[in-house]
Amino acid sequence: MSVAIVAGLLFVALSVLVAIHPAPFFLDRPIEVAVQSINVGWFSWFNSFVSAFSGFVGLGVGAAVIVLTFLLRRPATPLVAFSAIYSVVYNVVNIIIRRPRPTGVAHTTSKLIGYSYPSGHVGFFFWLSVLAMVLLARKLPRMLYIACWFLAAVLVAASALSRIYVGAHWPSDVVGGLLLGVAWTCLSFSLGRLTKAVFAPERSTAR
Description:
- By secondary structure, this protein is an all-alpha fold.
- The protein has eleven helices and no strands.
- The chain has helices at 2-20, 28-36, 44-51, 55-72, 77-83, 86-97, 120-137, 142-165, 171-189, 192-199, 201-205.
- The two termini are 32 Å apart.
């Protein structure tokens, strides 16, 4: 809960700043230019992969995760469904603030649904990674479990850099999306009524 509160307060503070000053912050453009100057080479496929989760595709994947959880890990369904409300919060903030997408940089992405702040992709991949770790990887051998957490962190970081590289978001948008994802996901996992059946399924179903 402490992590959720801290991340939530930071997200609120950043959102207020963006609402007051929608233009990119003083470090946004230099960081954007620096990231876009990197030659990704053969790794460009990853940018396409991340971008594919935009709009209704991302919503469809989120809905599919809830349905699969209901079919395969039914006790975890309330937790997954509640944590998915993150997308509602994201869309409300996105519509209220209406920060324009990046312009005046080497790479820009047109025909995107929604506005620039916050980045929905970063929060989405954080949410998806944490759920995968808790529901699928938690019982793996310790070293493999740690390796999976490392890969999850790399995925989230890479998705953040990808959104900056393709010009879909400013760096501060990415930070906002990550803060929102961390805040809501940690809030979900701090509610005992949602997590009890997930972390102790054998006890809850034993006769």
